[in-house]
Amino acid sequence: MAEPSHQTLEQAAEWFALLRDGQASQEHKIAWRNWLEAKPEHKKAWLYVEKISHSFETLQQTPNPQSTADNLYHANQRLRQRRRLLSGLLSIAVIGFVGQLSWNRKWLPDSVMAINADYRTGVGQQRQITLADGSQLWLNTASAINIDYTAQQRRIELLHGEIYIETAKDPGRSFVVDTTHGRLTALGTQFNVMSHPDDIELAVYEGAVAVQTLNHQQAKLQAGERSRFNGDKIQAKQHVITAQQAWRQGLLVAEDMTLQDLISELNRYHYGYINIADEIAQLKVYGSFPVNETERSLSMLTRVLPIQVRQVFPGWIKLEPQSS
Prior knowledge:
Layout lengths: L5 H15 L5 H13 L1 H22 L3 H37 L8 H6 L3 E2 L6 E4 L5 E4 L4 E6 L3 E8 L1 E5 L7 E5 L3 E14 L4 E14 L4 E5 L2 E5 L8 E2 L11 E8 H11 L3 E4 L7 E7 L3 H11 L2 E7 L2 E6 L3
Parallel strand pairs: 5-7, 14-17
Antiparallel strand pairs: 1-4, 2-3, 3-6, 4-5, 6-8, 7-8, 8-9, 9-10, 9-11, 11-12, 13-15, 16-17
């Protein structure tokens, strides 16, 4: 079933806020139950709202969320090192099978694969890494990668999220990025790779990148070109949007962007959910917005657009037309 519409999510959030404050009457509860049972989409939206509220409240109750997350990450890294020792012994027996699956692991959910990643970021975090050969790599919000450098090849595995790479020269070793939909081979370059639910988005800023899908479709993108691909098809090339790489500086640059698209991007960095009324979704936005300061970005929007911000409940924000 498709994702719930913005309108249905809004209805679910309104019901959740009403029931959560403890003031709902018996009539309200009956009406909510009737709404919930009316369509499968309503149940899906309700579960989504519950999940966001629970996650946000759990984070609020943590004395130091960032410190807790870092401690969990480093503990997990130590556990990963011990598991690698054991799995290395096992891999000798099954190396032929593993070789078949080394860069085609769509049968594993991204979130499961990312748990034991070599490097990862949480929601709203960015991270810069200098690789062993001097290449530079940036991880965007909620991203995870594995790194596998050998004498023959430099390999990055994008498990989830978005990365930007500046490759260092090494004539003796190719530089590849493996994704759930195919392999990218860098040809002395700077490029951005983003994993979407159904495909991969590639933008090349310097040099060139060769693309090979899981079903062996091939293409080469030059500097200034971008495209999206899945396992079966590579879409037509388009011009890169230079401003899209501003996330490395913590900025989201809007150039003739709709408010709906801007909010979709901000939601990637926001621990919670920002919903938007249909009446204002197509308003055009220009400017630079800090991706890690949601309140500031929304305040900036209210100063230039006829909109207002309403906190429906903790973790759930609604953008609406400005009251007359």
